[in-house]
Design a protein that fits this description.
Elements: E1 2-5, E2 8-10, E3 16-22, E4 31-37, E5 44-49, E6 56-58, E7 66-71, E8 76-81, E9 90-97, H1 103-109, E10 118-122
Parallel strand pairs: 2-10
Antiparallel strand pairs: 1-3, 3-8, 4-5, 4-9, 5-6, 7-8, 9-10
Length: about 120
Amino acid sequence: QLQASGGGLVQPGGSLRLSCAASGFSLELYAIGWFRQAPGKEREGVSCISTRGETTYYADSVKGRFTISRDSVKNTGYLQMNNLKPEDTGVYYCETDWTCASYDDRWLRTPRTWGQGTLVTVSS
């Protein structure tokens, strides 16, 4: 089971760090992906980190502002979000898969049970 947390209300330019905690299994075996869904829009891929953390991927809209990481000891993944913009508003979800390959397309097309996610609201 995956649990995303760390969302909240933040002003434009602010920062948040999201966490993705796993229970019942080891995240070490999987790539970790972050996705978001803005109101009235489809879910989209934000970032992905490979199994050992050696490769990371970012959507163009977040490059240079977001950083994905993982901690095998804590069995947790993270998404550090800096310089947040109103268009970053949405519910953020974390998910796992064997590889990051085409995470922003294949993972979304693969039937899966999405967790509750964590709401990020960027507003002044």
